[in-house]
Amino acid sequence: MVAGLAPLALILAAAAPGAWIAAPALGGALLVLVLLDGVFAGALADLRVIVPADAEVGEATALTVLADLTRAGPRARAEAALECGPRLAPGGRIALTLAPLDGAWSGTTDLHPNRRGTGAVSRVWLRWSGPLGLAHRQTSRALDSAVRIWPNIAPVRSPALQLFLRDAQFGMIARRIRGEGTDFEALAEYEPGMDRRRIDWKSSARHARLYAKEYEVERNNQIVFAFDCGQAMCEPIDGLPRIDRAVTAALTTAYVALKAQDRVALFGFAARPEVATPFVTSSRDFARLQRAAAGLEYHYGEANFTLALSTLAARLQRRSLIVLFSDFADPTSAELMVENVGRLVERHVVLFVVMSDADLARIVSAPVVDMDSVGQAVTATSLIRQRALVLQRLRQLGVRVIEAPHDKIGTRLLDAYLTVKREGRIG
User: Fold this and answer.
1) Entry pTM
2) Cα–Cα distances in Å, from 198 out to 77, 178, 181, 212, 224?
């Protein structure tokens, strides 16, 4: 409004210099309008912030601000800003716009936590305008709210997994399951479609008809999910650290393993072992695994594979399936890892889980436009080749390697677990 009145004041001064008094009079009138607009903006009667007590990393969770503004007109505008921890929002700031709702003002926004742990919401600012939009009133209040950020177990609640768990092998009632396994259960008359390699020829000759062997599926196996919490696993991939992607995949497979009556434990390490849970035997205790996974810290140093894997091997008194989540930047940093994983393979079944590096693949497939892009493509190709060599060395040692994009790693891990279980290689 001031900018609009300035040309009018210049025209008035040029046409009638004696009427200069009109300019300050207009400015004074505008100031009065601003003050009146601030007065009629109304007062704040109540302000509440509904902060969720719990959230899952990477999953949206709602935060609501409620304000009771007296005498606020329909043309008023209200905005809120909150100070929070960086785990809840980039930069530690949340902004939202409030709208009138049943006589009050309400605004809701989604939080997207990017780290496990506790995120604090420490202060809220509220600003609302008068009916003319010339003045704003603002207030702030301290908050004492915190959000506990848990590992993401959304795949466990997915309808697809729940439908899969309705299968007889993973039902709520314990059964003796006949099928592919290693423990002989009984003889059954051969029917078309059965594996011919299971035909018991001696019994068939004795009874003058074909009989096939049936085996009981293994149960009570020991499954250990080991997490490298070092620098490589704390690097983000598509907005979330690799370690959090790994925890989600591990907890999904752990839930299925508990339904299959196997025993599950978690093991986390960086410079030294940090998390080591006892074996959980029932799906009712799945929350214990989730709480233990929430305690995995983010470390920005190299992991000590020698100390960690030797400690893990000493804890295991029987043959187990060890699922190791890790990553590496070059063959030199992976040398100790390969050497210590090779010692585990001598007694245990080892699955090595690594996520595909989408950034390297994107650089290799990007169009070459200058010498800088050529250098990046050559370097990325070399790193991919070195990465493949390390994974090949692990395969030669007898390690089963799972390499997949982060959004498919959970499905690939679950398939690998079921394959190992059907083969009966753990017990």
Assistant:
1) 0.78
2) 76, 13, 12, 5, 32
